Predict the 3D structure of the following.
Amino acid sequence: NAGVTQTPKFRILKIGQSMTLQCTQDMNHNYMYWYRQDPGMGLKLIYYSVGAGITDKGEVPNGYNVSRSTTEDFPLRLELAAPSQTSVYFCASSRDAFSGNTIYFGEGSWLTVV
Amino acid sequence: QKEVEQDPGPLSVPEGAIVSLNCTYSNSAFQYFMWYRQYSRKGPELLMYTYSSGNKEDGRFTAQVDKSSKYISLFIRDSQPSDSATYLCAMSVDSNYQLIWGAGTKLIIKP
């Protein structure tokens, strides 16, 4: 019973490097999300997708890009990593739009930019 | 002022105590209220979901919404060490609108 799977779990990046956080879900959910979680702050929505081929910006999209070529996969791309992108990243999916009672989260990806 | 305020804690209580966790908010349009539990190094998982005002009970957990005061609460009865986690509140205007999250309260239940 996989649910939402994220990789990698931990990563250290140097300033200016790029990387992709992978996310896949096996629940056939249309909606997928990327959040970041910083100490003392609530979860902030980076990007979301309402279906394959459709993505949109959330609250904090700068410095990130996403794509959604399939229902299952929603990778998050960090270009030119900056220390401000040090955070914990969570991928999530839901059956319905933003419905709080159907959002399932992955286990998180800890990213440090040095 | 943050749209949703939540005391970060930590809140430390002995096993068996009644725990009260709270969030206040500023947007009177919020109608959907949720409590998530997040264990260390894990993703959040839904604990309670309430629409509009009133109480909702599920086992040892009770969620309470007071829209007139813009205040929501989560009560945990007979608290257990396994309840030690960070509790996040989240809310939204409607089911098609993005969630706004509190920062979370870290709860520690001492055996």
Observations:
- Chain B is about 0% helix and 55% strand.
